[in-house]
């Protein structure tokens, strides 16, 4: 299992290639049949809609994968959010450091969310995919009604909300549930421990479900190319360039500006964290690079007490690359289906992600679960998740490396605000001398 997991990106890439080959063959065969039956006089869109009826043999693989992902959305969001709120309650013991950490995490998250929205709205990479007719789905945005929206976020049945993966009602319920759990003291800790175990189980299930990703990629890509032809891949190129451009902007513009304002030597820090960033990029997991990141921050001069507090929390609350991807990918999928999300809807999405992204572990492809919830919440066809997962393995590598950089800067920022950021080696040398004494 571990060997398979380590090669998952390779298998997804193989599934992508096989999906392209199968799609090209079936595309030629389908349109030859259409011409042979005298249906080539139909419009291009009508021919594609007709061809879309004959790709369900491929789509079954992606549909199974989607069902497996959607079934864990509600319990995963519920458990992670509850445990995350319980951990936030622990900041009272840390006082000043905890408050500064939360403020910075919120600030960095907002920047990442806004960057994702700005990039996807300016360049509109999803429109290049144009996969709406591949599934025969015609989707129109529903009119926004403020009264219905407000009533909707206060659930009358939490089981029904979880069954339909309604994220906002779940968030509201968890907020009340967490407050009540904290209010009963020691008895509440039993509940928190239980849901902490549930959260770990759900994350483990996420890992298992991802083993089906290569088949899902094969089916999704083959179905799309069967209808649209291999030219649809050009849309992926634009999507990749736009997203990696956004990540580069965050790493080489946003983070340096934050460090410049606080007089932190960012480029020196980047040199120290280069190896953990490469490790995160290669494994598609920012958590895999945590030990190396800790060592790098110690050498940079961050004190152990701040590293031990900020960095672990950062891997649950400050995944900048993954957070940027959530807004970018959700809106890009909507664009691919010709759905025009209003500014209000996108701001609502940003607010939801500001909360739901907290507690999402930095494991490979975990953000897909949150995106699946966003697709349901905004009535975007879930099939779009299968389309974007074809290149998710590559995008995941970039956002994992960005997560490492973002958390390293967060630790350095809190160290600087606490006037505890020393010269490289000083903090370690002092600690070592004290231990020897």
What does this entry look like structurally?
With 437 residues, the chain is mainly alpha-helical. The protein has one domain (2-436): Orthogonal Bundle (Proton glutamate symport protein), CATH 1.10.3860. The chain is 77% helix and 0% strand. The protein is built from 22 helices and no strands. It has helices at 2-6, 8-36, 44-51, 56-89, 91-94, 96-123, 146-153, 158-163, 167-183, 186-209, 213-228, 233-261, 266-272, 274-283, 290-300, 304-317, 320-336, 343-356, 367-377, 383-388, 392-417, 426-436. Helix 4 packs across helix 19 and helix 6 packs antiparallel against helix 21. It is globular and about 75 Å long. It starts with a helix and ends with a helix. Residues 1-6, 132-144 and 423-437 have low confidence and may be disordered.
Write a brief structural summary:
The protein is 77% helix and 0% strand.
């Amino acid at each position: 299992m571990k060997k398979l997991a380590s090669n998952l990106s390779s298998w997804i890439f193989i599934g992508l290639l096989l999906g392209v080959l199968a799609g090209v063959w079936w595309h030629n065969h389908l349109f030859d049949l259409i011409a042979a039956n005298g249906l080539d006089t139909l419009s291009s869109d009508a021919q594609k809609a007709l061809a879309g009826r004959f790709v369900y043999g491929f789509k079954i693989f992606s549909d199974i994968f989607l069902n497996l992902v959607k079934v864990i959305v509600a319990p995963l969001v519920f458990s992670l959010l509850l445990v995350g709120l319980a951990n936030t309650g622990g900041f009272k013991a840390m006082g000043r450091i905890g408050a500064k950490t939360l403020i910075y995490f919120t600030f960095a998250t907002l920047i990442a969310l806004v960057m994702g929205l700005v990039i996807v709205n300016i360049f509109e990479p999803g429109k290049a995919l144009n996969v709406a007719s591949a599934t025969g789905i015609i989707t129109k945005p529903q009119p926004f009604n403020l009264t219905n929206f407000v009533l909707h976020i206060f659930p009358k049945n939490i089981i029904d909300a979880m069954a339909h993966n309604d994220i906002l009602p779940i968030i509201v319920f968890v907020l009340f549930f967490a407050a009540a759990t904290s209010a009963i003291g020691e008895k509440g800790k039993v509940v928190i421990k239980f849901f902490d175990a549930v959260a770990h189980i759900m994350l483990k299930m996420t890992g298992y479900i991802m083993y089906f990703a290569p088949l899902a990629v094969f089916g999704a890509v083959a179905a799309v190319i069967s209808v649209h032809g291999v030219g649809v891949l050009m849309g992926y190129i634009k999507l990749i360039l736009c997203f990696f451009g956004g990540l580069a902007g965050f790493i080489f513009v946003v983070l340096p500006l934050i460090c410049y304002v606080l007089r932190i030597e960012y480029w020196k820090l980047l040199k120290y964290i280069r190896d953990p960033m490469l490790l995160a990029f290669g494994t598609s997991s920012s958590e895999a690079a945590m030990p190396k990141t800790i060592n790098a921050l110690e050498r940079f001069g961050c004190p152990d007490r701040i590293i031990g507090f900020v960095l672990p929390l950062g891997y649950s609350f400050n995944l900048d690359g993954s957070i940027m991807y959530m807004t970018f990918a959700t809106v890009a999928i909507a664009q691919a289906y010709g759905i025009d999300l209003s500014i209000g809807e996108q701001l609502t999405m940003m607010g939801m992600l500001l909360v739901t992204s907290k507690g999402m572990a930095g494991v490979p492809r975990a953000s897909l679960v949150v995106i699946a919830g966003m697709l349901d919440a905004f009535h975007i066809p879930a099939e779009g998740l299968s389309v974007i997962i074809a290149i998710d393995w590559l995008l995941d590598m970039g956002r994992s490396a960005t997560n490492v950089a973002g958390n390293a800067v967060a630790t350095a920022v809190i160290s600087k605000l606490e006037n505890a950021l020393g010269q490289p080696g000083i903090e370690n040398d002092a600690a070592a001398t004290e231990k020897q004494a």
